[in-house]
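Hi everyone,

Forwarding the result from last night's run.
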Amino acid sequence: MHALIRTAVVLSLAAAGLAACDRKPDLPFAPTDTSLRDPDNPTKVFYTDMARVEHDYPLSREQRLALTPENLKSFTQEEIDQIYGRLTAGPIPNGGHEGDLFFARGEDLKSRLDEIVGGIGGRIADTKVKTLENVGRHLWKGKMFYREEGVLRNFIEDPKSLDALIDNPEAMMKTEIARKGWLGMIDKQTTVYLMFPAKLYCGQSLLDGRRESVIVDYNYGDEIAGYQERPDSLAGRNGLRVRDEVRMVRPGFYLGRAYMNRIFLLNFTVYNEADAKAGEKAFRDGALIKEDCWAGEQVAQAGQN
């Protein structure tokens, strides 16, 4: 009994420590430009001049080091957009990265999907929407980047809810990844399926066209070895036409944006702890950032490169 109590105390202190580390950092943001109100929704106001944001409100490396996958969720969507616009793509990621997804505060996946489905004429079947919601909220655990091959696959954990959509479950590619959270103290590894292949390349950002992002394009996943029509076509050109883009916050840590039929859906993060630890000192000391994609013509501010 005493051992159980001690364990509970240790876990509580650890949780408190993590919570302290993930408080919302104090970052500079451009004031909202009220002339850019959404005419269809006057309560929404956007500041879209990313060149001006970056020039007047640069992010220092210390500020970028203060960002974590968890505390990014505390920002508004406008703030997330401004953070993203002040980043460059950095090196194309390689290897496994754990993932998390989040929406603008006050939004949820169902309402966002309903908006997008209506926006493209309701052509997506309700079963596909429910499947994507299930994958996004509960099953997606991250991404495996194959930089040299220009390919990416997604980590999907225990996809039993997708069984009806899988042609050949025995042929699904699998791998082991570290289990996140307190469950990792009990069982350090978990099996995930490598699903929804995509092409990986540099391309123009749909939010900030001044420079490239790392693009994850599912439209041509059917050209990648191991592709299964069901379920992989769900994300491709004959399905939801998903397109992701990511930029580097700091080594091992990338902020992403997911689009469906070119309509923004949600934010996500991918994180590789080994890369983060290996690259932290050089990044903090001001080492040049390796850029695999075009970083644009605007001179980066506050020691960004």
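The mean pLDDT is 82.

Cheers,
N.
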